[in-house]
Design goal:
By secondary structure, chain A is mainly β. Helix content of chain A is 0%, strand content 51%. The chains are: A mainly beta, B mainly beta. The A-B interface holds A 4, 35, 40-45, 48, 50, 56, 58-59, 90, 92, 97, 99-107 and B 1-2, 30-31, 33, 35, 40-45, 48, 50, 88, 90, 92, 100-108.
């Protein structure tokens, strides 16, 4: 049972480049979300989805796009990378948004130069 | 904005001692959860306590919740070197009508358990 799988594990981008962080879960979870983790800031919610075809913004959505075409996948797109987006990104899923506990992937460490 | 705030920021104890970590939050909640994060890994759920519960146990973990003080504590008894990790509280705030509630995390506590 793989759980939540994130790829790649590490990525270096130049300012202005675009890329997609992949997230897949095999637990048939309806709810999926993206967080970023920065030193001294804890985890901050970027975007989330309560099911295929439904997405919504979190606390820090600017500079990021998401889509949810299937239950399993929830990619995060950086359209034009900026140094402020250097961070560790975590994807998480849960059965639902009601009294839910999150299952996390192991993260993608992104550096933007 | 951060809902939960953990205290202390860092804690260093000897193996076998108990570790107590605290979390305070600002608004009314549905439930409060504690997560652990080992270095270089994702967060792992430890325990969930609902707003109508006061205490919950899971193995060596004991969580209390005081909704009047808007605070929670996580106690790890008989700590082990393997408990060395960062610990986060997360709150599920009471949602307004029609709004989706979202889980928000504190900044975390770094626990070091010396062998």
């Amino acid at each position: 049972n793989a759980g939540v799988t994130q790829t790649p594990k590490f990525q270096v981008l130049k300012t202005g480049q675009s890329m997609t962080l992949q997230c897949a879960q095999d637990m048939n979870h309806e709810y999926m979300s993206w967080y970023r983790q920065d030193p001294g800031m804890g985890l901050r919610l970027i975007h989330y989805s309560v099911g295929a075809g439904i997405t919504d913004q979190g606390e820090v959505p600017n500079g990021y796009n998401v889509s949810r075409s299937t239950t399993e996948d929830f990619p995060l797109r950086l359209l034009s990378a900026a140094p402020s987006q250097t961070s560790v990104y975590f994807c998480a899923s849960s059965y639902s948004m009601s009294a839910y506990t999150l299952h996390f992937g192991n993260g993608t460490r992104l550096t933007v130069t | 904005s951060q809902q939960g705030e953990e205290d202390p920021q860092a804690l260093s104890i000897q193996e076998g001692e108990n570790a107590t970590m605290n979390c305070s939050y600002k608004t009314s909640i549905n439930n409060l959860q504690w997560y652990r994060q080992n270095s270089g890994r994702g967060l792992v759920h430890l325990i969930l306590i609902r707003s109508n519960e006061r205490e919950k146990h899971s193995g060596r973990l004991r969580v209390t919740l005081d909704t009047s003080k808007k605070s929670s504590s996580l106690l790890i008894t008989a700590s082990r070197a393997a408990d060395t990790a960062s610990y986060f509280c997360a709150t599920d705030a009471l949602a307004q009508t029609g709004a989706n509630s979202k889980l928000t995390f504190g900044k975390g506590i770094t626990l070091s358990v010396r062998p």
